[in-house]
Write a structure and sequence with these properties.
Blueprint lengths: L1 H55 L3 H4 L6 H15 L1 H10 L2 H18 L6 H15 L2 H9 L8 H26 L8 H23 L12 H11 L12 H8 L2 H29 L5 H6 L2 H21 L2 H21 L6 H15 L1 H12 L4 H25 L9 H34 L19
Membrane topology: Multi-pass membrane protein
GO molecular function: transmembrane transporter activity
Protein name: Major facilitator superfamily (MFS) profile domain-containing protein
Length: 468
């Protein structure tokens, strides 16, 4: 009898080891099929969204006859549809497929970027930026939702960060392209060459993503039957519903769930710094050097360093399964950077100011990758997840409006009110993030004690616990 028990235990161990090997193989295959396309998508998203900041240093305002705060108004008009269309895009992604929606949106904003070359006045550039904002609104919420079709909540964080590296690389590449084309002499202005080159890259990326990225594990020809069954089993750890139907009852319940709005408030707070760094980094660096061409070249360093910091922070978050603590502790560094950049006299110490841009770029973006993953991890229905993610990114993009109007022409070149605003909103984010974490800690204690038998929506998984 004892020998039989030992044999059964040995067979179980072999079975578990075999399943672990298959899981790792499935994960590697999924990474190979999914991540390259999304990396291309986010690279083009950042390239086209932030290139207006580079173009400003090449005299775009003068060439188009912009006066007063019309440049800031351009950013505001971009962020209005950028915020309003997040939820509709995620609903469409739930109904049709995130990959289809992302590819379509990329193609549209790439065409808009190239069309910006033909603008000759404020009205022309305004029209292209409004359409571009509506199209770019699709990407980020659909990206995170798309990843939940392939990965469990414990695996998404580092993948979002890997994709996020392309944003920093795009910032560095855009700075390098700008530094090069702004010295060209030809029939076009330097910023027009910039828009043509970056828009062409974007349209090519849309074609690649549409034809080569999988629509999902079950619909993909690249997975075997066994891998599809294992993938379905893995995803059941996070949700008990895995079809394409949009459930209005789930959407309504999610909107009535107060943490949905708490996450949106967090996004509103960290979004001010994210938008400010994306749109005004070349302008802030231009304050530290009289060479406007070199100002774009100097954006490369902060973006590349930020890439390393970002992947390290999100890897730590995944490793420790601590979303709120990592997001709130790291943002302290960028908070100090924003405040010091706005209050120190940097004209005689430009190297100190340049160092501060490394802190700002390196730590401002960390919550924007971690918080949506935290949100998605705590929403058990795919419909609720799509709605909540759309609302989260809508709030973050509304923050871009606040950022745009805070950088007023009369405050140049230091922009003290805008920089202090970035620091204050990050401080509020830190406090609110820790409060929300304690709420989930309290819920987990009730689940552990049996006071609450199971998490709502996860009746079939009594061992489910909320991410913190």
């Amino acid at each position: 009898m004892a020998d039989s028990d030992r044999d059964d235990k040995h067979d179980v161990e072999i079975s578990q080891a075999s399943e672990t090997v298959v899981r790792k193989r499935l994960l590697r295959k999924t990474d190979f099929l999914v991540l390259p396309g999304l990396c291309i998508a986010y690279f083009t998203n950042t390239l086209d969204r932030a290139n207006l900041g580079n173009a400003k240093t090449d005299g775009l305002e003068t060439d188009l006859g912009l006066v007063g705060n019309q440049y800031s108004l351009l950013l505001v008009l971009f962020y209005v549809p950028y915020a309003l269309f997040n939820v509709p895009w995620t609903i469409a992604a739930k109904r049709f497929n995130p990959n289809v929606i992302i590819s379509l949106a990329i193609g549209v904003w790439g065409i808009c970027t190239m069309a910006s070359t033909a603008a000759t006045n404020f009205g022309g550039i305004m029209a292209t930026r409004i359409v571009m904002g509506a199209a770019e609104a699709a990407y980020k919420p659909c990206e995170v939702y798309y990843l939940t079709l392939f990965y469990t909540r414990r695996e998404i964080g580092v993948r979002v960060s890997i994709i996020g590296q392309m944003g920093f690389i795009a910032g560095a590449v855009s700075g390098l392209i700008s530094w090069s084309v702004f010295r060209w002499t030809g029939g076009l202005h330097g910023w027009q060459y910039l828009f043509l080159i970056e828009g062409s890259i974007t349209v090519a990326g849309a074609v690649i993503l549409f034809f080569f990225a999988p629509r999902g594990v079950q619909a993909s020809k690249w997975y075997s039957r066994g891998e599809k069954d294992l993938a379905k089993k893995r995803l059941a750890e996070d949700t008990e519903e895995q079809d394409n139907r949009f459930r209005w009852n789930d959407a309504k319940a999610q909107l009535l769930h107060w943490p949905t709005w708490a996450y949106a408030f967090l996004a509103l707070m960290y979004g001010v710094g994210v938008a400010s760094s994306s749109n005004f980094l070349p302008t802030l660096i231009k304050r530290l050097t009289k060479d406007t061409v070199k100002a774009n070249l100097y954006t490369i360093g902060p973006n590349l360093v930020a890439s390393v910091i970002q992947i390290s922070a999100t890897w730590t978050s995944d490793r420790l399964q601590q979303r709120a603590l990592v997001a709130s502790s790291t943002i302290v560094v960028s908070l100090l950077g924003w405040i010091l950049l706005g209050t120190l006299d940097l004209e005689s110490h430009p190297s100190v100011g340049y160092f501060l841009t490394f802190l700002i770029t390196g730590f401002t973006f960390i919550p924007s990758n971690i918080i949506p993953v935290w949100l998605a991890s705590n929403v058990p229905t795919t419909t609720g997840r799509a709605v909540a993610l759309g609302l989260n990114y809508m709030a973050m993009n509304i923050a871009g409006i606040f950022s745009s109007v805070s950088f007023r022409a009369q405050d140049a070149p230091v922009y003290v009110p805008a920089l202090v605003t970035c620091g204050v909103t990050q401080g509020v984010f830190m406090l609110a993030c820790l409060v929300l974490r304690q709420y989930y800690v309290h819920l987990n204690k009730k689940l552990d004690s049996g006071e609450t038998p199971c998490a709502p929506g996860m009746e079939g998984r009594p061992d489910y616990r909320y991410a913190i």
